[in-house]
Amino acid sequence: MKVAIIRLSALGDIIVSAVFLPHLKTLYPQLEIHWFVDEMFGDILDHCPYIDGLHKLPFKKIFKSKNPMAFYRLWKTLCGYGVYDIVIDLQGLIKSALIGSMLKKSKFIGFDKNSIRESLAALFYNHCVHIPYEKNILERNAKLLYGAFGQDIPPQTSLTQRQKAFGYTQQAAQKIDTILGNQSKATIVFVLEASLEAKTYPIEQYAQLTHLLMDLDIKILLLSHHHPKKAQDLFDKISGIADVVLLPKMGLDALKALIGRVDVVIGGDTGVTHLAWAMQKASITLYGNTPMERFKLYGEKNISLSGNLRANYDKNDFSIRLIPPERVAESLRAVL
Fold first, then answer.
1. What is the mean pLDDT of the chain?
2. Does 157 or 3 have the greater pLDDT score?
3. How far apart, in whole angstroms, are the C-alpha atoms of residue 330 and residue 308?
4. Residue 77 to residue 12: CA distance in whole angstroms
5. Nearest CA among 2, 60, 75 for reference residue 33
6. Is the Cβ–Cβ distance between 46 and 252 less than 8 Å?
7. For position 177, what pLDDT does the model report?
8. Would you say the C-alpha torsion 40, 257, 265, 18 has a positive or negative sign?
9. Is 95:63 a contact under the CB 8 Å cutoff?
10. What is the percentage of the chain residues whose pLDDT exceeds 70?
11. What is the distance, to the nearest Å, from the Cα of residue 302 to the centroid of all Cα atoms in its chain?
12. What pLDDT, in 10s, does the model give residues 287-328?
């Protein structure tokens, strides 16, 4: 059976969708899985042994361009992948439904109009699944993925091997080993960025957190991508009191290798903290403007803290700043 999964973005959403692939392939070993993803995020799925065809295309650029010829070329490309038995739209947006409509298929499944933000997307599907939009993201993904095969399997029973979905190259592993060196300290990643400022924990509070951890034998790794000055500022603040490394800018292959080798990841509601959970690493995820219960990722060593238990996606909600460094420090000691 040939199946296409559409999950174009964003990084964290792709990760919490891909975690089901090992169990899905265990249930259906002959399943041929193709994944359609925006080229901006596709590298996170490189070296995944459960994906038979990874299609990284410039979907965002094409839709932003509104160029009829670009859409025509996209249609020709998608038609060239042959016929799928099932197409699953995990994104639930009009653009992802439109992409699915361009693929040749027997069955097109997605969320019904009452289960997604862009209800018009449901008009494209010939089979719909209902689950309230406010339900946890793992429940929603499991409901749709397994529902495509006529099954109803809770996520708790299907995620024990989730880390196997995220492979990386030996070259990336060697690069990270060189950065970390040989040492016995627990390694803690501070994630200094997120897609929105409202999801970003301030560096001043990371500095306070570092002071609270001075009695622990740890190495702190500062991870940033677009804002190196912010990372440098924090490094300058704490390098005199902690064993700290300012990480270089890295791609997604190196990021997977990094997360595979550290002990704990601390950061906002971002793809990096999702990746830590997915790779079965300890994590502390800090929520502000997003509702924690909808995105919380459960695990024995995965702690979630919120600055606003009534959050509703307001970009001007900076309540993540209300999470005291003391609570984060207490959580870190618990997972260590």
1. 97
2. 3
3. 19
4. 27
5. 2
6. yes
7. 94
8. positive
9. yes
10. 100
11. 15
12. 999 999 999 999 999 999 999 999 999 999 999 999 999 999
Q: Is the pLDDT of residue 181 over 90?
A: no
The whole model's pTM is what? 0.97
For 123, residues 6+ apart whose C-beta sits below 8 A from its C-beta are 97, 113
Identify the band that residue 184 occupies on the pLDDT scale cut at 50, 70 and 90: confident
**How far are the Cα atoms of 80, 111, 185, 221, 236 from residue 215, in angstroms, in the given order?**
60, 50, 12, 17, 20
